[in-house]
Amino acid sequence: MEINQLQAFDMVTRQGSFSKAARALDISQPTISLRIRALEEAVGGILFVRGGTRLELTELGTSFLPYARQALSALATGTEIVRQTKQGARGRVSLATLPAMTTGFVSSAIARFKASYPQVDLNIHTNHSDQILEMLYDDLVKLGLLNWPLFSPISLTPLLHFREPLVVVAHPAHPLAQRESLTSLDVVREGNPYWQVDWETETRSWHTHLIGAEQALTALPIHTAHDLVVRGIGVALLARPLVTDDLAAGRLVELPVQDLPAFARESALVCLSRERQHLSNATRNFIDVLREEGRMFIYPE
Q1: Which helix (H) or strand (E) holds 93?
Q2: Domain 3-87 has CATH 1.10.10.60
Q3: pLDDT, tens only, 200-216
Q4: Within 191-268, where are the H helices?
């Protein structure tokens, strides 16, 4: 039993004659007759009552018709899914990222990708660096978003490299937001309080240098510090993508700290080096969307 036989059977049923079905399929009448005869041999009986002005289905043909159409529909659906998969419109994208990297341009990229490719399964996981490396190695995810550079026991290929500037922010009503010029020492001593976010070795050294032994220090996760500052409590050094919307909406202001070093959070979208040439089209489309959304922070290699 062949697909073209099922197509001939379906079209003859719809058109009511061999000649009309042949024209609809753009084949000769003898060809369509041969296909129907071969199909009847395959199913073991006559499918049409010959004679009269219009062909009628036999009892066997009536019983077989819904299954023939179901098979044709499944084939059409499968063919379309394969076509969409090749174009990246279907498939699966899997990413593991640090919890602190799920906002800003990353969340914008997720929303944009899902709107553009609604039929793609998108799976975003959060974990610590060691667990993300394990997930990549075990093929649980294809992509990882990690702090960079990173010592790794497995070979990784960076696909995108981001450099996000760190800025000191406060609520517009905070006393420091009324000042035209500040020093780093002003921020730490008058932040009331200054929330320490542990970004990297350089920022830790900066904190150690500025904060005296007699001064109490509160170290917080990134999102906790962000939430408190938006509520008008204290100031913090945060990544610009995290606060871009807050700055635009007036919920936060960037403080004019004149001697602030050019701190930045560096990260990279990575995959296993052995998988670089085998990423699906859907995954490549996601990378393109993330590149576009994060274009302001792309760090040239």
Answers
A1: strand 91-97
A2: no
A3: 777 878 877 777 655 66
A4: 201-210, 222-230, 240-249
Q: Buried (b) or exposed (e) across 194-216, using 16+ Cβ within 10 A?
A: bbbbebeeebeebbeeebeeeee
Domains 91-163+267-297 and 165-264 share a fold: yes
pTM > 0.85: no
Query: Beta strands 264-272 and 143-147: pairing type?
Result: antiparallel
Architecture per CATH, domain 91-163+267-297, reads as 3-Layer(aba) Sandwich (3.40)
Q: Pairing state of beta strands 156-170 and 235-239?
A: antiparallel
CA torsion sign, 267 to 272 to 276 to 282? Answer: negative
Residue 53 has pLDDT above 90, yes or no: no
Confidence of residue 84 (pLDDT cuts 50, 70, 90): low
The whole-angstrom separation of Cα 84 and Cα 100 is: 33
Helix (H, G, I), strand (E, B) or coil at 92: strand
